Amino acid sequence: MDKLTLSWRQIRIHWGDSLLAVLGIALATAILAAVISLIGSYNSVFDRFTQQPQARQITVRGQFQAMGSGEAAVRIDAAASEPVRFNLQDVPKIMEDNPDVIASYQARYMRFTTTAMGGGGAFVFGGGTAAVGNAGGGAGQGTAAGSAGAAGSADGRGAGQGTAAGSAGAGAGLAATPIPGGGSGPGEGFGPPEMMGFGTEGTTQVVDTPLLEQVQGYMASASFFTAYELQAKEGILFDDRDVTQGNAVAVVGSELAKKLYSDQRILNKKIRLNGRIYTIIGVLAPYAYSTEGLPVSFDELIFVPTREGIARSGAAGGANATFFGRVGELSFTAKKGADLAKVAQGLEASFARLYGENKAVAQTQISQVKKDLDKRLKILSLLALLASAVGVAAAINIFNLMIGRVSRRTRSIAIQRSLGATSRSMLIQTLIETFILAAIGALIGFVLSFPLEGVLQSILEKSQLRGMVLPQRFDLALGVSLLAILVAGLFAVPAALAAANTDIVDALREE
Amino acid sequence: MLQLTNITKAWNTGTGQVVGLKDINLDVNRGEFMTIMGPSGSGKSTLLQIIGLLDMPSSGVYTIEGRDVMGLRDADLARIRNRHFGFVFQKFHLLPELTAMENVMLPMSYAGVPLAQRKIRAQELLDRMGLSHRLHARPTTLSGGEQQRVAIARSLANDPGFLLADEPTGNLPSDQGAEIMEILHQLNKEGMTIVMVTHDEKLGAQGSRTVRLKDGVIEQIVEREPWTN
Q1: Does A71 score more than 50 pLDDT?
Q2: What residue in A sits closest to B84 (Cα-Cα)?
Q3: ipTM of the complex as predicted
Q4: H or E stretch at A104
């Protein structure tokens, strides 16, 4: 019984204003707990991000010339509105100037179509856009055999059949049609490899039709693997020579490798990516780090040598004919523990020496993510402010409520004192009553904070903080709830003191 | 024994000092039934409150069983009230939030009596007051007489030496009042010291000793044979 029972009874008797106080505390706790734990989640995600290789990437982009110095005259020249392009041959020197940089690479995030008639194929090779089902028909079938022009079209498949008669059989046309969901029944001719004429090489290659019509990945330099500490689990990674020679080789992420082919054997498979046929030479080991700040986990991606900056001199063909040309964007990887802002400054200085002032801007990946994060934190801080205001209102409500209760209850206090209660126990009893109210409110608030946090997160994440899986910060939500109880207790102290100092005789005399 | 020596109680008001009690010298002996009488404002309730340590005198010496209680801290005073005195008020002063039984248990909880014992004792006392059927009733559902009997049960909870009653029948119809007086006499017979404030001459005459106050001063002390019904 005692203090707890008495407090609980008093709360129940005055349930109307008790409820109001509880709701106030619940509301303030819910909002504040949701906001604070979301802030905490973002911060811990950011902390984790800073430990990952992706946090050490710095991208240098060429500026539009006309923007640099504001020279009006330059704008008139059409060429002047082109961005500055960097000569890849300058990279070794830039690396030398910046000892904290351990890798330099180009990378372009791509969506690849694996079907023969995909947009990319059609675009690259200028082929037709005949609908699926036309295979085997069409006037161009015979003439396109083995030629580059038909490689990306349905007609091309027909042509392939023609030149490789017998090997594909009747099902070959179906083999190249998109297979929704990746399944293929017997008789659809999935098994037999499709015979293709490959454009530029002018040779015929076998394509192993994958289960996925579309894959995503990077066209990148070989040092991309160094930059992100990616390693081969099976086979090998492509190297600089593959890049310079423009070899059609591909490396597949560990998860994608499981999904790409039904037989799970992936090495040496031929895959068509936007019309070009690549040989898969390696599978990556699962990414050893977490994926904060990445658009998609590397495990889900395919990697092929970049073709950007590779110019061909003279006639087509021949490895010796390629050389590094110019690119608009270069990425660099800083050493672990390096001061990233300083490295970015150093890179900008190197580029300025080579290309002139304000021609290149270096941006750290971390600053991008931080900017993303800061946007959210700003909104959340405002919400926290709002929640604090609600909290103050709830606390003032508790203050008023308890003062009111104690003043209405002086006789009851005096009776208890006459029965042997100490003034201290009256103080404690008032606080217990407050704590019960606050604890109920805080508990409701704690529980409500999670759905509320989900709502806030979904609103904030419309702009997508890439690859971030937010951890639930129960600890912070719990902390806020306990704080709410504590604050309510503090605001009840004046009432508790008033209860302790009640004059017994006066209170008993009162009507 | 309670011993009051030169007890004075005065209050400062805006216009000056008001004296409630002046130079009171009084002993309360174990086992007696003392009645305090006097007109309104004579200081009889103030005297009872000082005896029960609900109020402190402005000057004088007050000893309980030889121990000076004038300089004691709040916690010590609370303990003496809890163990040595039982209070019965004109308006019963039960806590409306608690049941009859819980009201009786309350002083025991301040004394640190374990819950199980509290329950047994409260039940016993209410049984004795003829309220065994109303253990879990809220005060508001009880008659005045029943409420006062709960209050008496509560005053006896910690088995005090002194029962202090301030107009215990003042709010009751005469038959219920008579019942309460009956209980008080019975308790007195069993050895309980009773100090009762009343303005009712008939009730006052039921005490073994009557102290008459006038303007805060003892006007007369009358001793008589113990009252028999």
Answers
A1: no
A2: A420
A3: 0.94
A4: strand A101-105
